[in-house]
TrEMBL record:
Domain of life: Bacteria
Protein name: Uncharacterized protein (TIGR01777 family)
Family in the record: Belongs to the NAD(P)-dependent epimerase/dehydratase family. SDR39U1 subfamily.
DUF1731 domain boundaries: 243-291
């Protein structure tokens, strides 16, 4: 039986991936801080899980949906870099290491962009805390030289599926708060969770591919378009818009940061499209229709 190891595999994406891999007949090992799985402190257990695995996918990291206090900043950074280094050292300790290691990164690594899209080749790295985390995360990953293991960093956009960010977005629309946020001009780069999984399989099946890939739909939209599409799909005629000052006030109340909705992420999957990957959900309307159909 083929084996896959999901590090940080108990979150929204990890649970979905575990289900899909099991449907394909894989044995799935999960490394997590939650009980019932391989613990991050159990180095021997991690090495044993990785021995003979076809694939290692690292999704670990504290959620950025919080206030960026000094303590949260430290945990956000260390929960990504330290776990990545634990995995790298464990792969080096394997006699039969995984053939492919896919490490999460984030599309937030690029600058706020309203003027042009960012690709792997000509995208400009931004500044600020989130960008610093992303660059440190990728540096921790690529500092390992693994002769028997191919390495790919996925700069993942906002993942849409039955859970995750769709819960707060649909709640906003349902309670008539689903207008544009801020200027509404900021770009929203996204990917349907099924296409993210298909992307992983595609990368696994093409052994010549390595390095950095943008994991996003080829058709990002503005925030105004996103909220209008959600309202249309949910049959809600209007929604109150939220100016920046209101978002700043609300973010403090619900203990999060406005960057999550106000940063313009304009990211294009140029490398994957060039390599021939075809998206099942390449437009927002098709993605939302499928997801909301599951919820009804």
């Amino acid at each position: 039986m083929n084996k896959v190891v999901l590090a940080g595999g108990t979150g929204f994406v990890g649970q979905d991936f575990a289900r899909r891999f099991k449907q394909l007949g894989y044995e799935v090992g999960i490394i997590s801080r939650q009980s019932g799985h391989i613990a991050w402190e159990d180095r021997e257990g991690i090495i044993q899980a990785l021995e003979g695995a076809e694939l290692l996918i690292n999704l670990a990291g504290k959620s950025v949906n919080c206030r960026y206090t000094e303590e949260n900043r430290r945990i956000i950074l260390e929960s990504r870099t330290q776990t990545t280094r634990i995995l790298g050292e464990s792969v080096l300790s394997c006699k039969n290491p995984p053939k492919l290691w896919i490490n999460s990164s984030t599309a937030t690594i690029y600058r706020h962009a309203e003027d042009r899209p960012m690709t792997e080749q000509d995208g400009e790295i931004g500044t600020g805390f989130s960008v610093d985390v992303a660059t440190a995360w990728e540096q921790a990953f690529f500092e390992f030289s693994l002769p028997s293991t191919r390495q790919i960093a996925l700069r993942i956009a906002i993942v849409l599926g039955n859970g995750g960010v769709m819960e707060p977005l649909t709640n906003l629309v349902r309670f008539r708060l689903g207008g544009s946020q801020g200027s509404g001009r900021q770009q929203f780069s996204w990917i349907h969770i099924e296409d993210l999984f298909r992307m992983v399989i595609y990368l696994q099946e093409h052994p010549q591919l390595e390095g950095v890939f943008n994991a996003s739909s080829p058709h990002p939209v503005t925030n105004r378009h996103l909220m209008a599409a959600l309202r249309q799909q949910m049959g809600v005629g209007w929604g109150l818009s939220s100016p920046r000052w209101m978002l700043e006030f609300g973010a403090r109340i619900i203990r999060t940061e406005t960057e999550l909705v106000l940063k313009s992420r304009w990211v294009i999957p140029a490398r994957l499209e060039h390599e021939g990957f075809v998206f099942t959900y390449n437009t927002l309307d098709t993605a939302l229709a499928e997801i909301l159909k599951q919820k009804n």
